[in-house]
Amino acid sequence: MRRLRRVAIASSASGNGKTTLARELAARLQLPFIDMDALAHRAGWVELSADELRAVVEPIVASDEWVIDAIYRTKLGTLLLDRADIIVWLDLPIRVWLPRLVRRSFRRLRTGEELWHGNRESWRTAFVGRDSLVVGALRAHFSRRRRYPDYFRPYRVVRLRTPAQVRAWLESVTPR
Predict the structure, then answer these.
(1) Structure pTM?
(2) 108 and which of 78, 113, 156, 167 could share a cystine (Cβ 3.0–4.6 Å)?
(3) β-strands 41-42, 157-160: how paired?
(4) 89-95: average pLDDT
């Protein structure tokens, strides 16, 4: 495998392991890890506009080395994809990611874990209503599985569908 210097991690839904994989890959390759949610969310769960987020992300992706843990397609279009050496698409089955997502949310609720800029999950944001994390993840899963094959067609993509494939791919990446 050629040396990776710019990697975008995409997923079909929250809970697929984007951030975990991105952190592990960045450490393995000794590259900067970029947490897109930390860039996109301000205190009080205020999200940057598309223009504001683009202004923050453009200088990062203009650099030669990074691992980014989300693509923010609706706000950034193909900005990340066009600069990435490879897109790693985590497309795990619901039976894998949904229990992970629920466990993670319960842990965050129990511990009061801060996510970014003082933001914390709440019962409402995690589990209640159409805009909750869990409902949003389910909607995203089906929508992205339908759209991503065409959307990613022009790019070099590795689609990983099982935790075993994720582990094997990560192990196949040669450290610097």
Answers:
(1) 0.94
(2) 113
(3) unpaired
(4) 97
